[in-house]
Amino acid sequence: MKVELESRIVEGPEVVGVEPALDLQGKALPAVQPGAYSRTVTLMPRAELERRMVKGPDGVEFEVEPLRDYYCEAGPTVMPAAYLKIVEDLFNWARSRSIWILGFGTGCGAIEMRPLMTPRFDAYRFGIQWRPTPRQANLFVISGYLSVKTLKRAIRCYEQMQNPKYVVGLGSCTINGGMYWDSYNTIKRLDDYLPVDVYIAGCMPRPEALLQGFEDLKKLIRAGKAEGANQYAERFDWYKANQKQIIHDWDMPDYNW
Amino acid sequence: MRELYARLKERCALGELTQQRPNLGFVTLPREQLRQALTHLRDSEGYTHLVLLTAVDWLEDGQFQLTYLLSHRTQGRDFGLRVLIPRMDAEMDSIHDLWPTAATYQRELREMFGIQFPGSPGVNDDFILEGWTGMPPYRRDFDTKRFSEENYNHRPGRETRDPTTYMKQQLYPGGL
Amino acid sequence: MPFDWMKIPYALLTLFIVFNFGMLLNALIQKIGARVGRRYGVPIWQNYADLIKNYGLRSSITHGVMYYLGPVFRLTGGVGLLLFVPTIYGSEMFSNLSFAGDLILALYFVFFGTLGMALGAGESGHPNAAIGITRGLSQVTAAELPFALAVFSVALQYQTFSITDIVAVQQAGFTSWTLFTNPLAVAAAMLSFLGSMMRPPFDVVLAPQEIPIGPPTEYHSSYLALMQTNRAIFPIAKIVLYMSLFFGGAASWPVFFLKVFAIYMVSVLVGVAFPRFRVEQSIRWFLIWAVPLGVLSIVLV
Ligand code: SF4
Hints:
The structure holds three protein chains of three kinds. Chain B is of the alpha+beta class. Helix content of chain B is 28%, strand content 23%. Chain B has helices at 2-11, 34-43, 102-113, 144-151, 163-171, and strands at 17-21, 24-28, 49-58, 63-72, 77-86.
C-alpha cells in the first residue's frame, strides 16, 4: 500500500463550466473569462502520518511508518458459515432477533431513528438496540445523504464492525441522490461504496417504514441471504477503487479494522 | 438604529442605511474602514457578539460581498456591515484578533468561495471538503450539476418532473 | 477434610440454574424499566438471542493477552463469588464450596472482576475505555467501602467469617435477620448495593447506549458474550451474598428466587425514580451518606 504524502500543487486557471451558466431567471450569466479564478492549493501533508524516528521508553531509537506499522495490512477475508446447517440456522435466528444498530447518523434521516426508541414505536421489542461502538454493532444504518467527508468515516466504521454485518440505506438520498442529486459533495449510489442489504425509500421515511425495513432485513437474515460482509471481502478491490475515486485525500490504511 | 448610524458616520464613510426591521440594519462601507468600525461597535456601542461572517457572490459585478453581522445582546439588536471586494484574486483582512470565532468563518469562506484571509489561524486547513482541488463550489460560476454528474456515479431511472405541471395533472386529471 | 467429588456436578447445576435465572431476571428488569417509561419492552428471551448472536459472530480481533483475559477474569469473579457462597442454606447439593472464612474470599471476588476488566480494557487502547475504567474504578471503590465496613460489622457481630455460620444464626425467624439485629450495617450495605448494581443513578460508568460506553468499548463477539454471561451471573451472586449476610439466606429455591428478585427490585425502584449521578457526585454521595453509616455500625456492635 502506498500513500501519497507529498503536497500536491494544483494551479489555475481552472474553469469547470464551459456552457454559459444560467442564473435563476434563465438569463445567461456573463461567460467566465479564463483566469477568472486561480488559486494555488497545497494539500497539507499530515505530520502524524509521516515516516519518522521514535524514541522508545528504553532509549532505543527506531523508525516508524504509521500507516504501515500501526495498522494491520491484512484485507478482509470471506468467512464461511457454520459447518452444520442447523447451527447456522440457530445463529441466523439469533442474529435476526438481536440487531444492534451503530449509533452514527450521517444525514437528516438520522432524526427518524430517534423516535424508534420512544414509547410510541419502541423498537426494543423487536430486538433492535443502539450501540455506541462499531465493534459491537452489526447493522449500519446510513441515514440519508453521505457527503464525501462522512463517507470516509462511514467506511472506517463499517470496516470495524464484525462479520456478519448489514447495511441499510435510509432515504432516497442513498438510493439515487434524492434531492441532493446535483450536489457537489454527496454520493448518489450507496451500493457502489458499501454492500447494502435493504433500502428504505422516502424523504424521509416514517418510523413505521423503518420498522418495516428492519422486518425485511430480518427475513433476509433468517434466509441466510444477508452476506454483505462476505460480498465486501470478495469484491474488495472494486469497492476500494470506487471509494478512492471520490475520496481524494486517502490518508488511512486500505482496510481499517 | 438611526442614532447608531449617525454616530458611526462621524468616524467612517458609510453607505446608505438599509433598515430591514426596527432592530436589524445593514450598512456598506469601504474595506479600509471595516476594522475601525468593528472595533468601535464592539468596544463602545456594545455590539459584542459576532453572529456570522458570510459572503455573497455578485458574479455580474465581479465582486464578493462580505457581511459581518454583529449583535447587541442586551438590546436585542443586530447590525450588519457589508464590504465589497473584487472577485479576482479575492483577499480580505482577517479579523480573528477581534473575535477568535471569525477564524472558523474565514476558513470556511476560504474553502467555499476561495477568498483568502492571510494571517488567520488554520485558514488553509480543510474545513468540509477534504482534498478538494478544483474551483470552490460556492462560486456562482461553479456548475454543481455538471460536477456531480462527472464525479459521482449515477443510478439510471431517475425522473424529474416540473412540480407545477405534475401537481396539476395529479390533482385535476381532467384539466382545469 | 476429604474432597467430595460429587460437589462438582452440583456446583455446575447451581451455576446453570443461576445463569438462566439471571438471564431471565435481567430481561424482566429491563421490561419493568421499559414499562415505567410506558414502553412495551424487550421480549423475555432477548438476552439469549443477544448471547447466541455474539457467540455466533464469525470474526473477532484481539488486542493482546490481557485484553483476552479481561472478560475471563470478570466471569471468574462472578462464578467464583457464586460458588464460594452457600447458595441454598442447609442443602448438601447447593452449598458448593463454602468453608469457614469464606467471607473474606467473597469480598475479594467482588472486586476481582472489576480489576481484570480494568487491565483488559486498558490494553484495548481505546480512549473511551480508559475513561470508563477511571470512572468505574473510582466509583466502585467508593461504593465498596461501605459494603466492606458493613461486612466487618456483621463479622464482628457474629464473631465469625463463615457465611454458613452467619446464615445459621439468622434462621430463628424474621427478627433474627441481620436486617433487624444490625440495621445500620444493612443500611450502609444497601446503599453500596445501589452503587454496584450498575443501574441508575449510578450507571454512568456503563451507560450502555451512549458514546462513552466505558470499559467494554472495544469488546465484541465472544469477548462481549463472555461479559454478558457474567452480567447474568454476577448480580445474582452478589445478591446471594447480601441475602446470606443480611436477609436470612434462603433454605430452598423458591425462597431464593423470591428474595433475589425482591433485593434486585430495590435497586430497580431507586433506578427508575432517580436521574443519573455524575461520577464525582456519586463518590461524594457514598462518602457522605454510606461510609459514616458503616463506621457507625462497626462502632455500635
Ligand atoms: S432522503 Fe431526504 S430526508 Fe433523507 S437525507 Fe436525503 S434529503 Fe434528507
